[in-house]
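Give me the fold.
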Amino acid sequence: MTALSYTEEAFRWLPEENAIAESPVRNLPQSPTSGDRILLVDDNADMRDYVKRLLDERWEVETAANGAIALDLIRQNPPNLVVSDVMMPEVDGFQLLTAIREDPQTKSIPVILLSARAGEESTIEGLTAGADDYLIKPFSARELIARVETQLQMSRLRQERSSNRFKNEFLLTVTHELQSPLATILAWARLLQTHPFDQDRAARALSAIERNAEVEAKLVRDLLDVSNILSGNLRLKPQLVELSPLMQNTIAQFRRAAESKELQLLESMAITANSTIKADGNRLRQIVAILLENAIKFTPAGGQIEIQITGTRSHLQIIVSDTGIGITPEFLPHVFDRFSQAEVPSRHSPGGVGLGLAIAHHLVELHRGTIEVHSDGEGTGTTFTVRLPLESDSTPTV
């Protein structure tokens, strides 16, 4: 009697219709590929190849030979599901599971652990460690596929519920943000119509109406920008822009707001007076405005905001730093998400719908640049860094 290979030995218990010599999923109900991506982690090549063939019929499957490789792949491109063996070198299944659950960006990814350790205690250990399912070898092809399908369906349901909850919260937030200035406008307008005002009080009323109308108009513009971003219709209108006056004019617009909040607004520009950049001037101004507005909004009275603008022949760099409330490590990865402020509010948050930074991020990307955020946590301030490439044929020395 010849010795069985590892795979033959591991799967000799499968029903005949699922034997290795046959199609591994013959007679199992087929479903069209859903677009879900599964990461399969196993250090045994035979087992890895066999399970991959089982799953390849329905889903896109990527493989890793151990947990360390898997973590790199997950961080680069998070999968919809992780199916991992427990016993592996370097980083085993439990260590991989712990790393996934500790990372805010990956903690919601469902994980199925595979193990040869039978018994109720092993299953409880796996589930207690945070696994969504624990499958004991040997298992049939039908059972594996059913478990995988179940976890993917549950993940989709969770996402749908989260999406619906998020939409409801967003609508409530937008409604509140629209109603608040609108109520002020209506109140002052009615007073102007029904009460005799002296010149000073009438001027105060008109100023309040104008200020709140500008808040409304900005929110509407932001919503239109996001709508165009989502539909792919937001386009740049690049032209040669004189950098120094554009930046100075933009910064000047925020000096009064900073002074009214008793904030120091410092600027530093290491660029030549006649420097130009090929960009959409209005959108570049919008990026800077969003960052300054954000810094003023989240910096308590008495704080400091600094904007530094430097340039070389290859790139333009804009740094906006503040001494404000800072950003928690949990929220930091979501700073540029649409509506992120409404979805994950800080207890210090003055309110808003969280559109500005998402718009700034997209506008920077349209300019083929990068935007990064750094904060050491609550109360430590925040720094945003924008880098935009310059075209040598149209950009003098800066």
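The first strand starts at residue 37 and ends at 41.
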